[in-house]
Structure formats: structure tokens, C-alpha cells
Amino acid sequence: MPIVTIQVTREGTRPGTDSVTAEEKAQLIKGVSQLLLDVLNKPLEATFVVIEEVPTENWGWGGLPTDVYRRQKGLIK
């Protein structure tokens, strides 16, 4: 019984959103489950997918909090 955990930062992927949408989560669950079926022959009903959204202030990148790192790299203003 595979258990897959996906961690993403809690921010929107489109203007006006501040988290991953339910539709995006459904696509992730479907895609990961199908991949395990295709590669490892694990039945869909035996696969569990957990999506964890982490606030950006709790996510580090390059030794810095994510927002600080992005500002230094010019990725955000």
C-alpha cells in the first residue's frame, strides 16, 4: 500500500488564489496514483496521496526563508 506525500508552499498558482485549488489537488492525486499503477502495478484503491500545504514562512530555500530568497533573486518584489 503506497503512501505518497506531496509538500507544496501555500500560495496560489493563479491570480486571485492563495493556495492550491481543489481541482489542482485532484489532478495531483489522480496523476500520482496513475503513475504508481503504471510503473509499479499498484492498484488505485491501494494508493494513498497526502497533500501538505506549507506556509512560505515555514519553507526555507538556499539557507533563507522562501520570501527572502525570492526577493534576493529578483523573483518577487
UniProtKB/TrEMBL annotation:
Coiled coil: none annotated. The active site is at residue 2. InterPro entries: 4-OT, 4-OT-like_dom, Tautomerase/MIF_sf. Keywords: Isomerase. It is an enzyme of class 5 (isomerase). Its EC number is 5.3.2.-. Residues 2-64 form the 4-oxalocrotonate tautomerase-like domain. The keyword Zinc does not apply. It holds the Pfam family Tautomerase. GO terms for molecular function: isomerase activity. Belongs to the 4-oxalocrotonate tautomerase family. PANTHER family: 2-HYDROXYMUCONATE TAUTOMERASE, TAUTOMERASE-RELATED. This is Tautomerase. It comes from Trinickia symbiotica.
